[in-house]
Structures are given as C-alpha cells and as structure tokens.
Design brief:
alpha/beta, UDP-N-acetylmuramoyl-L-alanine:D-glutamate ligase, ten-stranded mixed beta sheet, two-stranded antiparallel sheet, 12 helices, about 45% helix
Length: about 350
Amino acid sequence: MIFATRLFMCRSSEHLFKFKYSTMASSASNVDERMLKASRRIVPVLSTSKYKGQDGRIGIFGGSAEYTGAPFFAALSALRVGADLAHVFCTKDAGVPIKSFSPEPIVHPVLDQHDAVKQIKPWLDRLHVIVIGPGLGREEKVFKVIADVIVICRDLKKPLIIDADGLFLITQKPELVKEYPGLILTPNAMEFSRLAKAFLEKSIQPAPVAKISDVKHLADVIGKNVVVLHKGAKDVIVDGHKGTETLSCGTSGSPRRCGGQGDLLSGALAVFYWWALSAGPSECALSPAMTASYAASRLTRECNAAAFKIKQRSMLTTDMIEFIQPVFAKLFETHVYK
C-alpha cells in the first residue's frame, strides 16, 4: 500500500493524503496505482537497435574481507532487474570470493590499493549510477578512498545511492553529501538513528515505522536534491523539497529478516533511478528519484513475499533474487517478448 502527501505533512496515524495531481484526498489504492503506472512508464522497451550498456551501467562500491555477499547481491539484483552491466569495486581480499560467486559482475579489487582513486576515476564517467555501501566495512583506508570518490561524483553530478556502511561514513563526514545534486539514502531504523544524530543533532530511537516528520526533517537538512528511503515495516520515502511529496509503502512482505534484502533493494534502485532519469520528469508521477524509490521498494517487498510463500523460515536473499523476474513482469512489464 502506498500513500502520498503534498504541500503539508500528515500525522502517521492519519490516512488522508493529498496527491500531486489533485487537490482532493486520494485513496491509498488510487495513489498506489498511479505510482505503479509511473514506474511502468520508466521501464525501457527491449530493442535490437540498442547497444550494450544503454539500459544501465551500475557501479557498486563495497565488499571487504568479511562481507562479500552484500555487493554481489546488489550487483546481481541490478542485472536481474535489467541493467546491462554491473561493476563491483571492492578490496583485494573480497575480489576472488565475489568473482567465484558468478561471472556476471565485473569486479575491480582496488579499494584498498595505494592508487585506488587513480584506478577508479576513469570508470566513474562511464557509469550511470553509483551505489556506495554494501559490504563496505569500516576500514579508515577504504573510507578515505570512498570520500574521495564521493567528491569526484559530486563534480560529475553522478546519481548516487548510499546504504549500509556508506551511511556510517557520512555520519562521520556529513559535509560529503550536503546539497549533493542527486542523492538517495536508504537507511534502516538503526542507520536512520545515527543519521539523525549526525545531521539533526537529535536522538531518535530506532522504530519499525519511522515518523514521517523525522524523515522529512533529515532530507530537508541534507539538501533539496536528496531523497531518503527509510526501510522498515513500512518504507517511508521523502524528498528534500520543503512541502512537497512523501510516500509510504506498506505492501506486505514477510516476517523473515534474512541478511541481504537491503542490498537487493539498493541494486534494483540503481537501475530504476537510471531509467527514471532517462525517461525524464514528464514520465514520473513525482521526481525521478521518488519514482525509482517506490519501484525498488515495491519490487523488494513483493519478492520477499513470493519467496517466503515457498521457503518460509528457510528463505534467503538468493531466493528473493530468483523471484525478481516473475515479480518484475507482474508489476512493471508492459511488453510481451517472444
């Protein structure tokens, strides 16, 4: 279920919301259908006239000795959603394990090398969207490289998604993302609490469903081109434009909380973000970042529900990834390919 607000902030206990295209309150189902239609419009049609890379070249920055699954999940999810290419930039120790999982992602084990930034910089121009955080770890040496990468991405106006340990980095250096031109943050409850302390100087206890006003405040403080997707029992999605839109996605998932679901979301989100930007604002019900965030949230939740129906307590993120194709087809596909 999805809700939207415009021009004012709704209390979380209320179910009356204004939608962008109407001065009257829209029902949850109507808003949900409008967002689904907008999400379908941004999905590019497959064509033999396209070249490899046109539908998405995604860069995942993450992967360390301890955490090799997270960047793999993000990259594979991006590819399953429809990206043509997914690059993983990881530490040396993570390179071989990630390559052994699958030949599909392109792996660059450079994050802890002395000339990491020099090796990474030429690739940034070629990538459409950057994801920072899955399995990144918290080594100071790697954080310094990532901070330099964010500065370069800002200069390039590169669409950026930050999750997991990438969020921890920006709590240490908030100036890295202030007024970033095209940023989506995807915190869970604990990560949001840390962000609130760093950016708002406010203590917020982690909760299954975030207060819309708190998420909105964070987005406003970081910048006008920032979207925050707070993951929880209901995903709360807000932008940094004061007084504009807020979405709340409560589509049923499952009670299973296996690790890696957020990595699936970040990889899918990167692809939807590129597609929304390519389609242009006229095809999006809200901004490209908001439309992409809704699409990724909805896809992740429905993959969770579909996989849980079969696997129950044994469900893993790899099971969810296997459901990306049928769930995507049900939600977003408008063409039948033979």
